[in-house]
Design brief:
By secondary structure, the protein is an alpha/beta fold. It is built from eleven helices and nine strands. The protein has a seven-stranded mixed beta sheet with strand order 4-3-2-5-6-9-7, with helices on both faces. Strands 1-8 form a two-stranded antiparallel sheet. Strand 3, helix 3 and strand 4 form a beta-alpha-beta unit. Helix 4 packs parallel to helix 6 and helix 7 crosses helix 10. The radius of gyration is 21 Å and the shape is elongated. The N and C termini lie far apart (64 Å). Belongs to the class I-like SAM-binding methyltransferase superfamily. rRNA adenine N(6)-methyltransferase family. RsmA subfamily.
Length: 273
C-alpha cells in the first residue's frame, strides 16, 4: 500500500469514504452504467465507485473539491481515456461545461451530508440535462425526499424534488460501510427527472415561495402561514381548505396555490403583512 492510501478523511469536507465491497457492487448494479453513456460522479473520494463506473465503458467526469485527493485520483485513473477530473466545488459547477446532450447526464455521488440539500437543488436547476441521479445520503434525508403528504417527513425538500423527479428509496447502508463510520445510517436514492411534469406550475419560483412560507411554521394553518401571500378567499378559490396544516397538502394543491398567487397583482403579494 502506497502513501496514496494514507489520505485521512477531513471533517470540514464531511468526508466518509466508502470501503465495503458488497455495498459498492450493489450501488454499481443499481446505476448500471453502460458504454456510450455520460456519467458525472460528484465527490469520488478515493475512487470506490469510480473504478466500476470506468470499467462500464461510460464517459466519466468527476468533480472533487479536496485538492489533496486530485493526485491520488489521477494516479489511479488518468490512464483511462474515458476519465476526466474536474477539481472544484460541485455547488458552483457550471454543468453546461460538460456539453451533455439533453436528458443524457447520469449523476452519481456519495454526497457529503452537509451540502446534500443545496447540491440537489443546484442539480435540479439543470434537470433538463439529467437522465437520472443516484445518491448516497443520510437515511433521514432520503426518507424526506421519498415522503408522501400527511407525515412529519413531508416538507419543502419532498415537494420541490418530487415536482421535478420521481423518487425511489433503493436500499439502506449501515455506518460500517464507511471509513470513518458516520454517526447515522445512510441510504441510496434514485431521482429521475420527469419527462413531462405531472403538476406543472405557471412559475416554479412562486411554488418555491409558497412552499417555503407554508412550512416556515408547519404547526400553523395555511390561512395563517400564507396570509402575507394570499387572502383566505384566494386559498379557498384554489380548492384548498385554509384550516389545514401544510403537511396535509399534496403537490398538486401547492401548485394550485402557486398558480393562484401568479394571478395576483404584484402589490398584494408583496404588501399586506
Amino acid at each position: 500500500m502506497s502513501e496514496h492510501y494514507q489520505h485521512k478523511a477531513r471533517k470540514r469536507f464531511g468526508q466518509n469514504f466508502l470501503h465495503d465491497a458488497g455495498v459498492i457492487h450493489r450501488i454499481l448494479r443499481a446505476i448500471h452504467a453502460r458504454e456510450g453513456e455520460h456519467v458525472l460522479e460528484i465527490g469520488p473520494g478515493q475512487g470506490a465507485l469510480t473504478e466500476g463506473l470506468l470499467s462500464s465503458g461510460a464517459q466519466l467526469d468527476v468533480i472533487e473539491l479536496d485538492k489533496d485527493l486530485v493526485p491520488i485520483l489521477n494516479a489511479k485513473f488518468a490512464n483511462h481515456s474515458n476519465f476526466k477530473l474536474n477539481q472544484g466545488d460541485a455547488l458552483k459547477f457550471d454543468f453546461a461545461r460538460l456539453n451533455a446532450a439533453p436528458n443524457s447526464l447520469r449523476v452519481v455521488g456519495n454526497l457529503p451530508y452537509n451540502i446534500s440539500t443545496p447540491l440537489i437543488f443546484h442539480l435540479l436547476s439543470n434537470a433538463s440535462l439529467i437522465r437520472d441521479m443516484h445518491f448516497m445520503l443520510q437515511k433521514e434525508v432520503v426518507e424526506r425526499l421519498a415522503a408522501g403528504p400527511g407525515g412529519g417527513d413531508w416538507g419543502r425538500l419532498s415537494i420541490m424534488v418530487q415536482y421535478h423527479c420521481r423518487v425511489e428509496h433503493l436500499f439502506n447502508v449501515g455506518p460500517g460501510a464507511f471509513n470513518p463510520p458516520p454517526k447515522v445510517d445512510s441510504a441510496i436514492v434514485r431521482l429521475t427527472p420527469h419527462e413531462v411534469l405531472p403538476h406543472p406550475a405557471k412559475d416554479h419560483k412562486l411554488l418555491e415561495r409558497v412552499v417555503r412560507e407554508a412550512f416556515n411554521q408547519r404547526r400553523k394553518t395555511l390561512r395563517n402561514t400564507l396570509k402575507a401571500l394570499l387572502p383566505a378567499s384566494e386559498i379557498e378559490a384554489a380548492g384548498v381548505d385554509g384550516s389545514l396544516r401544510p403537511e396535509q397538502l399534496d403537490l398538486a394543491a401547492f401548485v394550485r396555490l402557486a398558480d393562484k398567487l401568479a394571478e395576483q397583482p404584484v402589490a398584494s403579494a408583496e404588501t399586506d403583512h
